[in-house]
Amino acid sequence: MKKKHQTSLYTGEFRSEFEADTTALLGRRLSSFLKLWGWVAVALFLLRWGGSLLMRHDLLPARVPFLGTPLDWTLTQWIVSLVADAVVLILYGSIWAVVRNVRIPRSRLLTISIMLIIAEGAIRVLAAGVVPDSWPVWKVMLTHAVAAGFLPWSPLQALRSMLAVAILNAAVQVIAGSHLGAPEWLAIALTPLAAAPGTGIAWLKHTRRLDQYKITMLSRRYGEFRRELLDARKIHEAIFPQAITSGPVRFWYEYEPMRAIGGDFVFAQSCPHQQGRVLNVVLVDVTGHGISAALTVNRLHGELERVYAENPDAEPGEVLSLLNRYIHLTLAKHSVFATALCFRVNCDSDSIDFASAGHPPAFIRAIDGTVHDMESTSILLGVSPHAEFDPAQQSIKFGPGDALLAFTDGAMEARDQAGKMLGTK
Fold first, then answer.
1. What is the pTM of this model?
2. Which of 95-109, 210-224, 348-362 has the highest mean pLDDT?
3. Phi, psi at residue 286, to the nearest 5°?
4. Per-residue confidence at 112, pLDDT binned at 50, 70, 90?
5. Which of 132, 138, 253, 279 is the residue whose CA sits 20 to 30 A from 410?
6. How far is the C-alpha of 86 from the C-alpha of 61, rounded, in Å?
7. Torsions phi, psi of 52, nearest 5?
8. 58: pLDDT confidence band, cut at 50, 70 and 90?
9. Rounded distance, CA 258 to CA 349, Å?
10. How many other β-carbons are positioned within 10 Å of the β-carbon of residue 260?
């Protein structure tokens, strides 16, 4: 259920931004479409009616080529057809003026664009009720296809406008059949095909724009994520300790996560009253990688600060027990566990007290060149309840000139130039 909820959030966010972008694009494109197609309509109007007025009846066939104006119409039919074309021109001009000069909510522009096609279709179809025309929607089909090329319609929106025109045309054809002759059923049946060109164009454009917007959005989100991750890494690395380059005990580390941020962590604190002769170090490796592991590290860092603030002289076994209790109670229910190595360097006793919970072995290189292992003494943190956890703290000699090397499993899993894991050896 959780994964589905996250997916729905992402889908909802994408849909909201895509619709907002579509609305903004529609606001720019609608005015351009009305202006361009309005001038085209004016030119066609002048060619159709200006030409028919100038041409002589006896020198021309019954229909003017390319203009479609029958010369044998009655005066009433001629006037109705002329008025229909003029009303369409007025419709486009008035809507263009409103869109250009009136502040219309962008959410209503989509309705206006669809209703524009329906309105022109209604004018053409109603005129066909007076003037014989078995295919009055072909003119609307052209307008619809051009509009689909201009406007960011979805296929459903493009189809909706022409289907309304097709239904109205079927009704008018049937009703007008009584005085215009029997309705042409084939033409009525084929009328929905007028939506095909515009709907096809809308589908192609919508699909391409949707894919492009997904790429754009993902690129933008990835850039934002990278910037946020870099900021998170700065904050995450700020909790790491400073190297100790002077005093009886020197301490230094190298940190390179598998990703930009990770679940490995080292905590170091000198006992304030021991003048640098006692150093506590905790090396932690949280299960998993990336942001979730880093968030867990921040919680464990706070717990370690609390433990050592309450008891600066806490023994490694005690620290591991408290960490196990914390992880078992708060993180194990989320399947989050950790390995840890906790040790305490004591210069006065020339020894290291340590406890290791499922952590890779550490090594002590003595001044004479011999190497001693510090194997794990207990199980993974968080697996068992507090009462059953036994850190099994141990002690090992650590004198002047000796060095301790500890690491997380990332060091063993690193690969050489041949692609082979380095391993512990």
1. 0.60
2. 348-362
3. -85, 145
4. confident
5. 279
6. 25
7. -70, -30
8. very low
9. 38
10. 15
Average pLDDT of the chain?
81
- What is the pLDDT at residue 8? 45
Contacts of 139 (CB under 8 A, 6+ apart): 120, 124
**Exposed e or buried b per residue across 8-32, where buried means at least 16 C-beta atoms within 10 angstroms of its C-beta:** eeeeeebeeebeeebbeebeebbee
- Give, in order, the Cα–Cα distances in Å from 316 to each of 46, 366, 369, 376, 387: 96, 22, 26, 13, 17
- What pLDDT, in 10s, does the model give residues 296-319? 888 999 999 999 999 988 999 999
What confidence tens digit (pLDDT) does each residue in 122-149 have? 888 887 777 665 566 777 888 888 888 8
